[in-house]
Amino acid sequence: MTAQPTALHPTPQLVVIGDFNIDVILGEVESLPRVGYDTVSPEYAIEPGGSAAIVALGLAKVGWETDLYANVGNDLFGHYLRDTARDSNLRLMNCADDRSESTGLSVAFSKHGDRGFVSVPNPESGWNALTKMLEAPPKHVHVCYHPYLPGLNGPLADLFKNLRRMGCTLSLDPAGPGPNPIDPLEALDALGRVDFLFLNEQECGDLGLKDPPLDSYFDRLADTILIKRGNRGAGAFQPNVSMEIAERSVEALETTGAGDNFAVGFLTSWHRLKHLEKAVRAGNLFGSESTRYAGGVQAQDNFKALMIDYPDLF
């Protein structure tokens, strides 16, 4: 099918591929309820979410011409997400079937400073619209959550091969190994090496990756591996390079979207300065700012001001 853009702008500089859904964000809960019982959250918020969408909205907010390839249904939530994209100057390239009525939804709950999710998946899609970006390749493509998006792995492998040939840089942020893998790294291997692989410590464990990374990972997976460590900052690794950058200290409210906003800061700084340490510091800056607000998008209104306050990072 043909992608359905919500707004027109020139050929995008950056493209994000992945999930766009509704986040229902609960406050701190004591425990999840047993079947037949209830539990209480002191507050809630409803925000546009999805790892890919948080990255794409953030990139658009700081001024990049950005496209988001995602699957959005033709329902009330889907129309809300289309309006969100348009108001943020983000072009949504909707890959979902026109008849799809379901838009993805995640309920996030916080406990002891961390969070968990109960999610309804995005609509299924053949992702045929991805080939559209080959007509005018962007500077960079960032992919989120690909093991959990039905039907994406096959088209993505071919797309990556063509984009690499065209000189596009690539980054990948996988949410674990995906359903029923024979080998936890099988899906990543199928894509070939990317320029940047974004992981957190939990994902390293789920994928069976050593932390710090083994030398063999750089031939197999990525030129640069970034490991997000929450309130301890982030590690950045290349062959013969290993650095740990401390987080900016803030009073955190909750952590939804912090890792995605780390990617916004990192990619913005990297594509401006090509300086690894500064890019990691920029990622920590945006990621820590995100924890001061509920959800992943509220903090993004502050990003341009942070770029002014920290000009050496951007």
Describe this structure in words.
This protein has a 10-stranded mixed β-sheet with strand order 1-6-5-2-9-10-11-12-13-14, with helices on both faces. The model has no long low-confidence stretch (mean pLDDT 89). The chain has a single domain, classed as UDP-N-acetylmuramoyl-L-alanine:D-glutamate ligase. The chain has 9 helices and 14 strands. The protein has 314 residues and is an alpha/beta fold. The longest helix has 16 residues, at 258-273.
Topology:
Blueprint: E1 4-5, E2 14-17, E3 21-28, E4 44-49, H1 51-61, E5 66-70, H2 76-87, E6 91-94, E7 105-111, E8 114-120, E9 140-144, H3 153-165, E10 169-173, H4 186-191, E11 194-200, H5 201-207, H6 216-220, E12 222-228, E13 234-238, E14 241-245, H7 258-273, H8 276-290, H9 303-309
Parallel strand pairs: 2-5, 2-9, 3-7, 5-6, 9-10, 10-11, 11-12
Antiparallel strand pairs: 1-6, 3-4, 7-8, 12-13, 13-14
Helix pairs in contact: 1-7, 7-8
CATH-scheme architecture: 3-Layer(aba) Sandwich
What's the CATH first level?
A: Alpha Beta
Q: Can you count the beta strands? A: 14
Kindly estimate the percentage of residues that lie in beta strands according to DSSP.
15-25%
Q: How many discrete domains? A: 1
Question: What is the terminal-to-terminal distance?
Answer: 38 Å
Could you name the CATH topology? UDP-N-acetylmuramoyl-L-alanine:D-glutamate ligase
Which geometry do the CA atoms define?
Answer: globular
Q: Tell me the Rg in angstroms.
A: 18 Å
- Total of DSSP H or I helical runs spanning 4+ residues: 9
Q: Please mark out the parts with pLDDT under 50 across 5 or more consecutive residues, or reply none.
A: none
Summarize the amount of helix as a percent range: 25-40%
Name the structural class.
alpha/beta
Sheet with the most strands, sense and barrel status: 10 strands, mixed
Side by side, the strands of the main sheet go 1-6-5-2-9-10-11-12-13-14
Say which CATH homologous superfamily is assigned.
Ribokinase
Q: What does the oligomeric state look like here?
A: single chain
What is the typical, i.e. mean, pLDDT?
89
Q: What is the helix/strand order?
A: EEEEHEHEEEEHEHEHHEEEHHH
